[in-house]
Give the backbone structure.
Amino acid sequence: MKKTILIILVVFNGMLFAQQGTPSKIAEATVYRNQASLTRLAKATVKIGKNEVILTGISTDIDPASLQVKFFGDKTTLLSAKYEQNYLIKQPENTKVTDLKEAVKKVSDDLKWNAITQKSLKGMLAILDKNQDLGGANGSFNASQVVALANSYKTKYLTIQKELFEVVKKQVSLNDKKAKLSKQLQELNGRYNKPSGSVILKLDSKVSGIVNIMLHYTVRNAGWNPSYDLRSDSVKEDVKLSYKAKIYQRTGQDWENIALSVSTGNPTQNNNRPILKPLFAYIYQDSPVMYGDDELEETVVSPTTNMAMKRKKEYKSGYSYNAQVAQNQLNVSFGISGKNTILSDGKENAFALKQYKLKTTYQYHTVPKLSKVAFLLAKITDWSQYNLVAGTANIFFEGAYVGKTRINPNTTADELLVSLGRDNGIVVEREPIKSYTATKLIGANKKQTFAYTITVKNKKHTAINIEILDQIPVSQDKNIIVILEEQSNASYDEEIGKLLWEMDLAPGQSKTVTFKYTIKYPKKALVQGKK
């Protein structure tokens, strides 16, 4: 009987060889906007047959559904893989946590010694206080001796008090230091000393020895934010765009000396294309609920109309032999050179991705109705080819920091407009023409006339091209009639009421444009938006 049990144990041991706590190391990270894909490498010792390998130290921020396992060579077959959270296995302590613990311990020891010193000094003061009596009525001290003893007491008392004062002062400083270190330690403990997880692999090996394992999985609490610098040295040069990524992570594990890349993709988004169903118009009638052939119908996509249609259900085997593959949208990845380290502190680490020279034209622009200032605009064309991500850009013009702007690649505009700031060398004035401004009553209606002049002067030493933008009201009521009577060759968009002039100005030259419009409406009506 004992022999039989021994044989069973030997056979079982040969069938499933379990290995506990196999270490692994993060080797690569591809960082997406709101998560990251990590690659871990490990080596495990296996025997011929079935084995169980437990890879420890996996971040609890893992998405278990994303787990992929690969082996180097064709001698090992994966039977199963699963992730489990493990509260018992403690992760290796972070070096920052260790250093802070040592610092807190040192300050605590200093406080203990400080308390001992204070006790000693207070004891010496007590002894001095008890020996102030110089013998009372039976004392044999003369006056000079009393003075000498008093002076000695004073000197010793003040020396001890001064030393005690400094010790108490140091105690306050040590307590403050300990409080700050403890707060920092508490923060780091919450960040690093999280419960760890394990990936349990069951595999079948044809040979015994070392097997090289590669894990791929995604984690939360990581991502990157785009950052841009737009630089122009003059209006004669194209804008240069510097594309940067600010990478952060709070996964509880430092990524040390790894290959790093960023991607504009999102692996968790729904990549199934939407199916448009026919929209049926009908007259609603109350009727009893009927169950008919609809129960035996299913929705499919017609290959000719590309819309959802109904067809009779066909009941088949529960197994699907033709899985539908969803095509992902185009993503752009940037590999960052060298080996890099990203600490699990949530702080952004800036990395340069790419530099582009953007095809640029420059134009001055003013909206004198809102601001009597001319702005220099950089009009960037063909910018959509660079696959940018929405983000903030710092603007530099002629070596000076101008401000910030927002890059929004999701817009459908052909040009990207970037304001490079105000130019005080261009003077803009907008004044009403009082002689044209009038109000008349015509029967039951009121008619008002408004007129303005806009003057632009170029005080710069170079010629400029400037566009001037203004507007007249757009009627939203059939009883309100707006007529543009004068526009000084402005292009006019009647739908939105926009007036646009474009002019060239030589150095020192000034030009004036005029526009006039009337608005007629019922005289008892209160009309908003007339000017």
Summary: The helical segments are 2-15, 95-130, 143-192. The domain at 426-522 is CATH 2.60.40 (Immunoglobulin-like). The CA atoms of residues 237 and 268 lie 41 Å apart.
